[in-house]
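sanity check both lines:
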Amino acid sequence: MTEEIEAKGLARSFGDLVAVDGIDLSVSEGEVFGFLGPNGAGKSTVVRMLTTLLSPTGGQAFVGGQDVVKNASDVRRIIGVALQDAAIDPLMTGRELLKLQAVLHGIPRPSARKRGEELLERVGLAAAADRRVGTYSGGMRRRLDLALSLIHEPRVLFLDEPTTGLDPTSRAALWEEVRRLNSEFGTTVFLTTQYLEEADELAGRIAIIDYGKIVREGSPADLKASIGAPTLRIDIDPQNLDNAQSVLSGFGIDRPARDGRVAIGLDGGVAKVAEVVSALEQHGVEVLHLELDAPSLDDVFAEATGRRLEGAEPST
């Protein structure tokens, strides 16, 4: 299968700060590829290099077979980009912005008008097309940004954290549009996100980045299967933390957990829960709450990095 996106030893430093540390990536034609990691892990920096907005300080990257540095203009012609911090003129209407975007891409006026109307309908903005963008909600702006990125029918679509800050309804609508683009038109999608559910829902394959390095890569199912035992999480009095960890060490491997909670990969799964609770009670540890969950992408991240994704502190 043709590789639409490829990175070889791709790196980017800002002075002494290494944001992306020599990563290798490949995304096949027609694939939805999820790029998962906490804020500051290097996700947006990778996207900016792949979309020619930022030059690498090491390695190479190719999109559609074109070098992103040597053939930047060729790359721009075949990609669509919806960035997290995209600037949209609040005084223009949605329809006006689509017309402007079409002009910038050299699309003939009749084709541009037809294409613009189709996109407004597709992203659910037909009724708001003549309103100034400054009156749009966050979800409406994100959907308009998606439409703008699609005006020239790109082969490859880069979505940089497209649903950050959106309500559940708007997020679900954008997910559905991404699925339709991929299934109906074969658009290759490179999706960066810090939402585990989003990556699990949309991506056929995922790479997890942390501190500028790829720490895991594979399909969501394979990554979760690699964890093995389900995760048992138990809330306890923090004063009993050491005692609880000592007891639980005999039931499975320790996994990262938030304050006031202990977690292990429970060997034997649900059949061992009662035994765990009994052992804790015998050692004077009161169980305030417990839950047993099948392996998740957050468990994959925790196993790879030693910390939970949602609790990660930005590093870049």
